[in-house]
Write the structure tokens for this entry.
Amino acid sequence: MIENFNYISENYKKITENVEKAKLNFGISDEIRVMAVTKGVPTEKVNFALNLGINLLGENRAQEFLQKYEFYERGQKKCEIHFIGGLQSNKVKYIIDKADMIQSADSEKLLAEISKRAKVCNKTMDVLLEVNIGEETTKHGIGADALYELLSQAGELPNIQLRGLMAIPPYGAKEHIYAEMQRLFHDAKAKAKAPDSFDTLSMGMSDDYITAIKHGANLIRLGSALFGARGSPPTF
């Protein structure tokens, strides 16, 4: 029996409408990229989403990413793949030639390893610095007070292109947290070695992407809003 994934199409349509409405309400003209987060999502569902026109995927776990990589490459259309989960230095070598961007760089050690492995692959890796904007002990990322030092260190490493910042605000966070992340992004952009390339603020997930858009996010990472809770579709 073939499972009916039409609810994914309806969800994507609703997401697209919500994003366009938010852009209108907040006076935004620039593109806002919608990432399909595929953590724990069967490849059949991801393939369906690709056929809807989604071309940006995000994976949280190195092992799952490696298992799905060949599937991504066989998609109907070429898709961009970002690694968005916590990344150990010893796992970089496995994904460096497969990811188009690493969004979760949060230490000089990890950045140095990315630089080293990217040089071996003769590529320049796009990177976002992950900021733990809520200072939560259960989340990865650097504190806001350490951002500028890491920004400076990253700017000196070869084979790395700093593209911006990533954050996961605490669940139910007040808007001032998002506003602070927006401020950090603009300050970091001004201090970046190549400010013209520092163009991405990755912030906002299924429960908060409208608030994130309001405060400057131009890449939102959606899992359950698109694919539903694992095992069942969501209800809007």
